[in-house]
Amino acid sequence: MSEPFRDPRLTTETRVGDLLARLTLAEKIGLLHQYQAPVDRLGLKPFRTGTEALHGLAWLGPATVFPQAIGLASTWNPELVRGVGAATADEVLAFHRKDPAGAGRNVWAPVVNPLRDPRWGRNEEGYSEDPWLTGVLGTAYATGLRGDGPVLKTAPTLKHFLAYNNETDRCVSSSNLPPRVLHEYELRAFRPPIESGAAVAVMPSYNLVNGRPAHLSPLINDVLRTWTGEDVLVVSDAYAPANLFGMQAYYADPAEAYAHALKAGLDSFTQDDANPEATLGHLRTALDRGLITEADIDTAVRHALSIRTRLGEFDPVEPQEEIGEEVVNCTEHQRLAREAARQSITLLKNDGLLPLCAPKRVAVIGPLADVLLEDWYSGTLPYRVTARNGVAERCETVYCEGVDRITLRAEEGYVSATSDPIGGPLGIGASAEFDVFDWGGGAYAFRSVANGRHVSVGEDGVLVNDQPGPNGWEVRQTFRMEERFRGLVLRHISTDQYVTADQGTLRLTDDPDAATLLVVDLVESGAAQAALAAADADVAVVVVGDHPLVNGRETEDRADLALPQGQEKLVRAVHEANRATVLVVSSGYPFAVTWADAHVPAILWSSHGGQEYGHALADVLFGDADPGGRLTQTWYRSAGELPDLFDYDIIATDATYLYYRGTPLYPFGHGLSYTRFTYADLTLSSDDLGPGDTLTVRVTVTNSGWRAGEEVVQVYTHQQRSRVKQPVRALRGFEKVRLEPGESRTVEIGVPIEDLAFWDVTRGRFAIEDASHKVHVGSSSRDIRLCAPFTVKGERVPPRDLRALDAADHDEYDGIVLCDAARERGDAVRSAGPGAWIVFRDADLDGKPEQAVLSAASTEGGVLTLRLDDPLHGEVLGTVTVRPTAGGHDFVEAATALSPATGVRDLYVVFENEGVTVRTLGFGR
């Protein structure tokens, strides 16, 4: 072979080095965009990053659609999740063969952001609120995507680095991330897929972290890339680079912003779709201005070429050439989709109604009973097996959608609609009927009875009945119904404009006073019709939940966790008519189904389950299979139990099952079986361990019921004594077992003692304390069957050395936010109001410090008081005056003499006014 970069016998490093040396500077710059330019003279083809493959191949045409990611996670079956990833990779390869430009092999999946808050609009894209479980499942899916051989099938990309759990103001909001939360929670989910080699690329998130855009985070190079010896490709999120000098205004111009992004570790700019000219021009300008060097460009290009080399692009033989179009939606993938959906279905409550015992007639009811919905990152469904379809294959069914049918009456006449199948403008004239879908959060959709199409708003602002349902990036098919005196008006959610009758045609207006007043006349009550259907059946199955594109999705968070009022009314009416009611919730996030939990005898949950959902649901309803799902999130009783959406400090706010001390509706790990399991003979390999050891937990699980079933044996630990606030309990391992009636099995789970470490802010590293712990074993985080104590011989965290402190490394705080100490790196703390404070616990004053020096900044100037043991009434150690500075990054030294003090005390820094930033503190003589 004349060109070493084409020789697969050589190392990736050698091949990339050879290829990089052959490229001109202009050619290398051409590789820094999402759409990498071809290099014809070397035979390099165009290359594009970014094929969506979250739960199956998306956006490119019909392909196997598996359950949403949160549904895959609820299987608690990493091997199954890996299999779904492998099937998805095969379908990506098949599409790539057919259309290399349209289906690239760099896939943007999985999403490993821990699901800190269930109101996050993209909750369905993640796996769990537990970072360890997220890492396990993310590694499994990425392993399937990459394949088992030395040549990658696809190049999996982890999303979204870092601390990204809000859609509201997502491009300008900053996630407040204390060091412990960063290291113990956020980073812990990202590390395993990278460290194991399962994922080979990472995408930063839109938000800022501690005041610095995530795309500029020093953690990319300083931490993330240290987890592996392989090159990691870092790709930007779509249009995020322009935010750096646009909405975020972090740098003054594009060249400066792009230069800093490149140096921070960004290798590929996803900007302006397939038009790289502007981006590459900004990078050339940065090079001309000396903001970056050719060596900086080489570093980024090396990362990109490494991935392409590992994909086998430069090999003499095309990799995985045996995979063809026949794999797309093949029989095996359909079987896998059904199994994944079946294992994801979670039994939340059962008073004995399930499994159904040969019912003659089942009423299948609800707005989700005869539809399958695609989320934004779904593939195109090749076929649909709905709940109604699945049940109808088993017994006689009666179906009722359960939505209200109405007319809308204006002063001039009724709202009219065409019966033309392709739709047309809505007007005022002859009365037309509409079915109303309540998707929650005040969002309603209207389906025209005349042609069965949903009402939408065209680009010209005219209302038309021409859509199959809510769809697209800009959902134009939903409205709010705002009460007015003697009627209501319609407000279009996407445009925030009102509906008016203009010369007989309904269109949008900016003027709320011009909105047409409408009166709703009920033609048919959905709840009443559903009750009639339920009363005439042996069993009623009510299928409710969310629409994945409405009231919670990318760009839109949820305000609460309540079922939509229309759906709640439906469930109550059906249950009143027939007590043998099964509630089936299909959603990408938890709902606060508190009334149903108190009244309905059986409740099932699953995510939107993909093409085989109806078959899987019927398998569980009729007892062909045990419900295999377990929750990977806490289900709260209301959104009132959650902290502020923007507060990322799960430790301070008692958030997630790790720290939550309330009584959840359904706890993390919860899920019932149709049989019973008993636990016995819990033993530990040792009750006295140290760093480097592994605790082996053994327990015998017996199926003590009358039928076969599945149990997820979960092992948690709790540290009983600590310098810091510890989790109530933390998941350390699990095993999913299937047992026949009377069968017993001894489950063995290893817990590395290193996993018990916490981030010690006093020394900037992980520490394993000398402490007592307990093992908790059970079927959920709250259903603990057996416990056993053990002791860890670790270290004692010494008193804090005061000679040099980073302000961000405090122990606790009140009224402060973390911010950037400088544009490139470093964190600081800033007061959000007078009386804010940070505390350094166990501060060692035995050196008898005489002076404190603070590095601080404040455009208005300020005063800080150093107190001992209490922020309000504690002994004053000193008072520091900060003179006004030019800006938030212009730090000055401010000093004060200290009152005599000795011993180990809690040191408070109290901010007497707003807007003072402190970066470092030092105490000495």
Automatic annotation (TrEMBL):
What keywords are assigned to this protein?
A: Hydrolase, Signal
Q: Which domain of life is it from?
A: Bacteria
Signal sequence range = none
GO annotations under biological process?
arabinan catabolic process; xylan catabolic process
| Annotated ranges, domain CBM6 | 803-924
Molecular function terms, GO-annotated: alpha-L-arabinofuranosidase activity; beta-glucosidase activity; carbohydrate binding; xylan 1,4-beta-xylosidase activity
Which SMART domains does the annotation name?
A: CBD_IV, Fn3_like
- Report the InterPro entries cross-referenced here: Actin-crosslinking, BXL, CBM6, Cellulose-bd_IV, Fn3-like, Galactose-bd-like_sf, GH, Glyco_hydro_3_C
Record flagged with keyword Signal: yes
Q: Which Pfam families match?
A: CBM_6 (PF03422), Fn3-like (PF14310), Glyco_hydro_3 (PF00933), Glyco_hydro_3_C (PF01915)
Role this protein plays: Catalyzes the hydrolysis of a non-reducing terminal alpha-L-arabinopyranosidic linkage in ginsenoside Rb2 (alpha-L-arabinopyranosyl-(1->6)-alpha-D-glucopyranosyl) to release alpha-D-glucopyranosyl (Rd). It is not able to hydrolyze alpha-L-arabinofuranosyl-(1->6)-alpha-D-glucopyranosyl (Rc).
Family assignment?
Belongs to the glycosyl hydrolase 3 family.
Q: What is this protein called?
A: Exo-alpha-(1->6)-L-arabinopyranosidase
Name the species this protein comes from.
Acrocarpospora pleiomorpha
